[in-house]
């Protein structure tokens, strides 16, 4: 690849000083000899000598003028810090950030070559333009939790060699903003950000606002490698659903609904793997749907995966799952005043999902205020407000007796807010409206509670509060009545109640999260096993951040008991195609950074730090200036001839 030669000035404004070149020119014009008649004998033999002397004087004056002009020009070039495309590494230091997208699509294999390998080769090629005083950052867009520290070329090469693909859908726009912040902390001139990606399409729309793009005065250059971005045909497993969306109970048969999206969704073989054994095989129909029967299973953790035959992008051909099968919970309806709530529980009872206690026996689920009559408090308590505000003080008393810091305001509030923020694991229909709430008051000191559902104005609507002796309280802000919320008359009422009355072993929570999202660490966890078998010790950290690999993450206590199992998967959605040519490609990269420049692969190496490519030659310029000063002094000191040349106006000069 032929390098592009360019001449650069680090202080180009000083080139304006070149106007000083006019000074020696003006002096030369002003000091031109004005001949005046001088009496002189008419000696014809001196005529030829005078002409030769005049020619020598003119030549010396022109040479002196050229030397003075050259002195001014070389001084200006030295002050402007001229850089020529010469070999060597004595150029001024610069800051360079390599943003390597090692996310989902980097693992695509085309013609036996992995896309990430091409990107890493381009990253190594870019480092060929750096020098020993440069500071280099390597940011892995597919692993945003990793820190990026300044390094030199040798350490940066080692970091590049260690980059591997992840299953995260990278957010390149936020990664470039992070790169700008790193360069801002390093006072270097110039600074550049190089983005190497095989997936330039955004997962969401490019964010707008003051944090997007360069700030005033920020002249950082952003180059995006045009690596081809070819995407072979790809299909992916979009979702895996068990039964009606809830995990089966002990002894309950169910079915698995698998949906495939992308290119060629019909007639794909889908395999169900349970605990490492093949449990079923099916083919997708014309819409990409496949159904596999799930036999009745005993109470235990169930871990497995659904997989397709591999294509060029293997990561999204597998989807993992994990859930807990438990016996049907025993529920006591004392305190369940809403007829819509009782009807939903009746449907679940007929389906074998719950068991309603009418006499003695210990319940698994109860309602607040709890009436007692059992040997222990149920591990799951539901605090659902009655329609009459007169019952709220008794409910708050029950919360206080259990050590819960949350309280329910007895002053009902009329509101027309939609349910917007819903934690995974909470089955709620989209865009439900809440008409009336009893506001939930959060305690001043954190108690480990989680806001599972919030309204559009951010106020909590469903909160999970841990109890001191284990178990949980689910605190709802609205009565289960149509006058308070649309939920009782919606298709989501029964699944929602089914999730509320689930035992602690199958609690509401994160069972399936996208790669890259944090996994909450449960209480009492001693270590977490990664999909590859390696272990991570929390050490008091509330979240596990390093979830770049899809698979099953198991949380164990000191006795090696499984406390929590989480499936980490590729975010749903098959990779989209990208423009193939022309200005469309340039438009695509603007979501990364408004000032980003798309650079073809053939010009990639020559574009890196091209603003200062070569060697600064101020030392050589100073040497040339010194020699010219000596020459100028010698030319100036040369005396004029004793007799000036004859003028044609003098007598005898013919």
Gyration radius, rounded: 39 Å
Q: How can the largest sheet be summarized?
A: 7 strands, mixed
Q: What's the oligomerization state?
A: single chain
- What is the mean pLDDT? 82
Q: Give the neighbour order of strands across the main sheet.
A: 18-19-26-25-24-21-22
> What is the count of DSSP helices, taking H or I runs of 4+ residues?
11
* Low-confidence region ranges: 1-5, 204-211, 648-654
Number of strands: 35
Q: Distance N terminus to C terminus? A: 69 Å
Coarse structural class: alpha+beta
Strand fraction band?
25-35%
Label the overall shape.
Answer: elongated
Q: What is the percent of helical residues?
A: 10-25%
